[in-house]
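hey
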């Protein structure tokens, strides 16, 4: 007789890949309260969630147009069911606290999930579970992403398949990832560029301050690798933005991310119409509903799990963006190999990948996606493929 797990393996892959849950709810089961306490025994057929704050420590100072930091706040979470654990995380750079949440707000949000997730009889009820999670709070997108990533990991493990395979993607088509060189002094920038020039096939440079040309010229003294630039809304005047883009196009820059503030969509559309380089949205896009209004303004969008609430919505965003004839970049925050491995599962379907958020973390808890000869190597294991060290 086919076991329950074998049955799920043979009948659920197509449904999950098409974003359809099994929708077989059972009776409501209350889960005892208590932060970071797994009070429901594994193997009981109930889901339970645990979580804890975890500060990420960085090897290099990370600087964008508006701030610098050497650590990143993070919350790790685990979703347990039938003796199997799915791992997720919420990464929250402080300058994005309004969108992503803070450690306190994410922990409070995850407690709501922990209190109620036992009402679902099966983790395969993914649409219902994640719709419920989304309804618990208008904000805290990183907390929602933590649950989503853990749920995808759990379901993938129960199915015995990685998500790139469930989605019908070829892991051999995973692209090269950019590696970010942040804003810094000439000496530090040159040393950093020399360090990574032989390890990566494409670099990413943060611009948006008063030393943009110096940054590019300094790197060009070291390497002629293709460069993607991220302005992080740093240019305010459209004439200046277009002048800079034309200058960059002559120096083997291949794309420009968020050149102007997200409130200046008319100016961005004016620049994109005249730009020799593709223009990608970052701060201008967060979730699925943002995409239709951006067609005709940007060439493509940057999808980040922490902003869009996780893998489920990211897959829907990718599908819609491609259908609209736009390009897709898969990006990240500073995240452990848990979050980066989750994002890497979508990478064979994108035009650009910026999945370097785990590389400079000194205290990564996971072993997962790797970069070999500059290209992403997606984990072959089930779920998102990241494993605890």
């Amino acid at each position: 007789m086919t076991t329950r797990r074998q049955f799920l393996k043979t009948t659920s892959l197509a449904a999950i890949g098409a974003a359809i849950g099994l929708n077989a709810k059972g009776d409501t089961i209350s889960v005892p309260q208590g932060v970071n306490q797994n009070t429901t025994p594994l193997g009981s057929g109930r889901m339970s969630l645990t979580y804890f704050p975890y500060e990420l420590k960085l090897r290099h100072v990370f600087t964008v147009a508006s701030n610098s930091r050497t650590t990143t706040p993070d919350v790790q979470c685990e979703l347990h069911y039938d003796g199997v654990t799915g791992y997720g995380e919420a990464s929250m750079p402080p300058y994005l606290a309004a969108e992503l949440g803070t450690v306190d707000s994410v922990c409070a949000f995850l407690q709501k999930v922990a209190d109620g997730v036992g009402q679902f009889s099966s983790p395969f009820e993914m649409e219902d579970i994640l719709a419920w999670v989304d309804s618990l709070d208008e904000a805290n997108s990183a907390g929602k992403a933590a649950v989503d990533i853990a749920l995808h990991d759990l379901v993938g493990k129960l199915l015995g398949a990685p998500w790139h395979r469930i989605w019908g993607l070829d892991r051999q088509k995973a692209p090269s990832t950019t590696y970010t060189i942040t804003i810094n002094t000439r000496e530090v920038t040159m040393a950093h560029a020399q360090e990574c020039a032989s390890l990566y096939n494409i670099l990413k440079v943060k611009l948006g301050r008063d030393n943009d040309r110096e940054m590019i010229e300094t790197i060009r003294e070291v390497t002629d690798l293709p460069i993607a630039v991220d302005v992080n809304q740093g240019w305010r005047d459209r004439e200046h933005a277009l002048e800079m883009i034309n200058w960059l196009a002559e120096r083997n820059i291949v794309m420009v991310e968020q050149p102007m503030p997200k409130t200046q969509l008319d100016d961005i559309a004016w620049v994109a119409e005249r730009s020799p380089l593709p223009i990608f949205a970052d701060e201008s896009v967060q979730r699925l509903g943002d995409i239709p209004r951006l067609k005709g303004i940007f060439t493509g969008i940057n999808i980040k799990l922490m902003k869009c609430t996780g893998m489920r919505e990211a897959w829907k965003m990718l599908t819609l963006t491609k259908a609209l004839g736009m390009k897709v970049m898969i990006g990240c925050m500073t995240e452990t190999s848990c979050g980066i491995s989750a994002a890497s599962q979508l990478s064979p379907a994108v035009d650009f990948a910026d999945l370097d958020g785990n590389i400079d973390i000194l205290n990564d808890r996971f072993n997962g996606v790797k970069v070999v000869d500059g290209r992403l190597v997606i984990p072959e294991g089930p779920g998102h493929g990241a494993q605890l060290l």
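Residues 1-43 have pLDDT under 50 and may be disordered. The chain is about 35% helix and 20% strand.
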